[in-house]
Write a structure and sequence with these properties.
Number of domains: 4
Structural class: alpha/beta
CATH topology of the largest domain: Four Helix Bundle (Hemerythrin (Met), subunit A)
CATH class of the largest domain: Mainly Alpha
Number of strands: 19
Mean pLDDT: 75
Largest sheet: 7 strands, mixed
Radius of gyration: 46 Å
Strand content: 15-25%
Shape: flat
Length: 775
């Protein structure tokens, strides 16, 4: 009986596969052939359908006749099949359950081994939990096997497995406890001594159960074979019945063939619609080079109708000189090598501007499919976009140059104002005079702050701001930020408080200037907008690991607060929470924008939490590397007797610098140009008294400071002088040029006296004002 079933199944499968394969071939043929070939195929299909009707009648008649012979054994066949199915399903169910049990036992053991071999505490806990979870499922499955089994031998083996498994669990729990207790060595020894033998007993029990089921399965196979043999005498009748069923299936499939052909034709129609809707030119050619498909877009693109193109060779259809490369590619390209051809230019027959095409050739076994795209307009748009991009870049460069020039023009007189004011403030003055001069200096410092904000914003906007990565002492940096702001806070009666968590590392790697700028902006805004109460700076360390930490900064005030809908706008350029803010408090609206962009350049995040009337808290978090090498300050430098050459084309700047350096005991000479500076340096070198420090103005009209520095570096007789560059423009690349020319320090004018004093002290070596120390 089983042989008959197998024969029917084999015949049916072969017939279905053959019919399916033929349908697939038909579809492929219809998709690739031209109109003539499709018409021939449709005639063949109609002939097949007419012959199919004749054979259908024969198959139905034979089927009815033979089917009557098989009716009397149908019931017996059904009962036999049910017994076979039940026996087979029972055996497979038992094997599936056993395999599931074996998998669970191995998974439980594997998790214990994972816990033994890993040093990660979290993974040890995870593997221990997984092992216990698998334990419960194993016990449940063993219990179910005991309930389901009907064989005494299998039941006894399962009971023994249950006992041995529980014995292994006792050892396993001890091992896991020792692992979680940190005693990995004791756990390993215990597992080798007790755990492996106990688990081997479990595997032995499992193997015995598996062997029993394999024997049972062999018995079931023998029983199935017996049942098949006992039904052998009915094979002929079953075979005839199977043939009848097969004929009926073939007839049914033949009847469905018409529907399948209709579906194929509908698919062809849809494919043609899709091809017609493609906005690119498309044609298909066979291996002989004849066109078999020509879509409507190509008709308009090349001004040739499909009726005139199909059936003709490519040389006749697109044989233009400009398309020679395309024709050559179609003729020579292999069947598995797509090709893209660009810049295929075709001149208009009527003259004027030609059209530019891009072709993509996709070869297949019996020809090639070519897509032709008119990229003339796209190329023109791309060129216009490139021109607009270049214009925008030129405008941006012009803006940067303008800002640099304006910076120089503003900083030069501002340097004189601040320098002269500082000099006068160091003399004996009346209270009214001192107040007026302090007002002048405060206004000049405010103007300098606005100028710095605009230049920083311009650098950030053009992605030209580079961050340093140097050791930073956190406590010193915070102190340097709070000291100048404390005066403003106390003048307004505010409490300025810093709260640094003990977990914050003392040393980090970062850009101290930009970090100070962010904090000064946030704290300065808080003091500006808070009329009473306090301003608190809090710093916390989050997620310290692997030599890095995430510092969380928060600046909280008791000011008027910010509406929720303004929380995002205040970080935009030239935007403040309220239009009246500018009138009442002043400012450019760039402070928060610069702070936000600096935080983002540090790969951090900044946000605000505030409600009207409840104050505001500005947060930002940045990841830093932790370091133990810090920069520590030492004694004040002594500059008495140090010789200096001042080179600046601005008389006011020369006068200010001479006065400042002379006050510190330095011996000064001032000249107004680059050539005069070289002459002075040459004369001092010949006299054996070279200048120790040369203060060079970077922006001089005839010979700028960089040119002078380059000439000094190229002359060995002037190598004894140390160069300091003073710049008022701060253009991108100045720092790089200074390093290349051996300039020891670069300062941006106007320079505060304290900064100038400290910088000269460092470069002349009177004292290492910043030295490396290990804390």
């Amino acid at each position: 009986m089983l042989d008959g079933v197998a024969a029917i199944a084999a015949l049916g499968a072969l017939s279905i596969r053959a019919l399916t394969a033929r349908c697939q071939c038909d579809r492929a043929r219809h998709a690739a052939a031209d109109d003539v070939t499709m018409a021939r195929q449709r005639r063949q299909e109609l002939a097949f359908l007419r012959s199919g009707n004749y054979f259908t009648a024969i198959f139905v008649a034979v089927g009815i006749a033979v089917l009557g012979l098989g009716v009397f054994v149908a019931q017996d066949i059904r009962r036999t099949n049910d017994r076979v199915r039940a026996t087979y399903e029972g055996a497979m169910t038992e094997l599936d359950r056993l395999n599931r049990l074996q998998t669970l036992i191995q998974e439980a053991r594997r998790n214990v081994l994972y816990a033994l071999t890993t040093d990660d505490r979290n993974r040890q806990v995870e593997y221990a939990d997984r092992s216990r979870s698998a334990d419960g499922e194993v016990l449940t499955n063993i219990g179910r096997h005991v309930e389901w089994t009907t064989k005494p031998v299998a039941g006894a083996a399962l009971q023994k497995l249950l006992v041995d498994w529980r014995a292994y669990l006792a050892v396993r729990d001890q091992v896991v406890g020792e692992i979680l207790g940190g005693s990995n060595r004791e756990a390993t020894d215990n597992d080798l001594r007790n755990g492996i033998p106990a688990f081997n007993l479990v595997l032995t029990d499992l193997q015995a159960i598996k062997q029993f089921h394999e024997q049972q399965f062999a018995f079931n196979i023998a029983e199935l074979d017996f049942m098949a043999t006992s039904a052998l005498y009915r094979d002929r009748i079953l075979f005839v019945t199977g043939l009848t069923m097969l004929f009926a299936i073939v007839v049914a499939l033949a009847a469905q063939k018409d529907g399948m052909f209709r579906a194929v034709r509908a698919s062809e129609d849809r494919l043609r619609e899709i091809i017609s809707s493609i906005n690119e030119g498309m044609f298909v050619s066979d291996r002989a080079g004849r066109v078999t498909l020509w879509n409507p877009v190509l008709e308009r693109m090349l001004d040739r109708p499909a009726a005139d193109a199909i059936g003709r060779t490519l040389d006749e259809v697109i044989g233009h000189r400009e398309f020679d490369a395309l024709l050559q590619s179609i003729k020579t390209t292999g069947a598995s090598k797509p090709v893209v051809l660009s810049d295929l230019t075709r001149s208009k027959a009527t003259g004027g501007e030609g059209r530019v095409f891009e072709a993509r050739v996709f070869p297949f076994e019996r020809g090639s499919t070519v897509f032709l795209d008119d990229v003339t307009d796209g190329r023109r748009v791309a060129a216009e976009l490139q021109h607009a991009k270049e214009a925008a870049e030129a405008a941006n460069r012009a803006k940067s140059d303008f800002l640099a020039n304006m910076s120089h023009e503003i900083r030069t007189p501002l340097n004189g104002v601040i320098g002269m004011t500082e000099l006068v403030l160091d003399t004996d003055l009346t209270d009214d005079q001192r107040e007026c001069l302090q007002t002048v200096k405060s206004s000049a410092d405010g103007l300098l702050g606005i100028l710095n904000d605009i230049l920083d914003f311009s650098k950030i906007e053009s992605r030209r701001l580079d961050l340093e990565a140097v050791p930073v002492a956190v406590s010193e940096l915070i102190s340097s930020v709070l000291k100048p702001l404390a005066v403003r806070a106390h003048q307004k009666g505010l409490e300025l408080v810093s709260d640094i968590d003990p977990g914050v590392p003392e040393g980090i790697i970062g850009d101290p200037v930009r970090l100070r700028q962010i904090l000064a902006n946030l704290l300065g805004n808080a003091i500006k907008f808070t009329q009473a109460g306090h301003v608190i700076l809090s710093i916390r360390c989050e997620k310290p690991q692997d030599g890095r930490c995430r510092l969380s900064f928060a600046v909280a005030d008791t000011g008027p607060g910010i509406p929720r809908e303004k929380h995002t706008a205040i970080f935009e350029a030239f935007r403040q929470a309220d239009g009246s803010t500018t009138r009442q408090y002043g400012g450019t609206g760039l402070g928060l924008t610069i702070a936000s962009n600096l935080v983002h350049l540090m790969n951090g995040r900044i946000w605000v939490e505030s409600e009207p009337g409840e104050g505001a808290t500005f947060h930002f978090v940045v990841d830093f590397a932790v370091t133990s090498v810090l920069l520590t300050e030492t004694r004040e430098p002594s500059l008495a007797g140090v010789s200096a050459l001042i080179v600046d084309d601005n008389a006011v700047n020369r006068r200010v610098l001479v006065a400042q350096l002379t006050r510190w005991g330095m011996r000064c000479t001032a000249v107004e140009g680059g050539q005069a500076a070289l002459d002075a340096l040459t004369e001092s070198a010949r006299a054996g008294r070279p200048y120790q420090v040369v203060l060079l103005d970077a922006n001089m009209p005839d010979v700028d400071g960089f040119t002078v520095a380059e000439q000094i570096a190229g002359r060995p007789d002037l190598a004894g002088s140390t160069i300091m560059m003073l710049s008022s423009s701060g253009q991108l690349g100045d720092a790089t040029r200074c390093r290349q020319l051996g300039v020891s320090a670069q300062l941006t004018k106007p320079v505060a006296q304290a900064d100038l004093f400290q910088a000269i002290g460092q470069i002349v070596g009177s004292t290492p004002a910043k030295t490396s120390a290990t804390t």
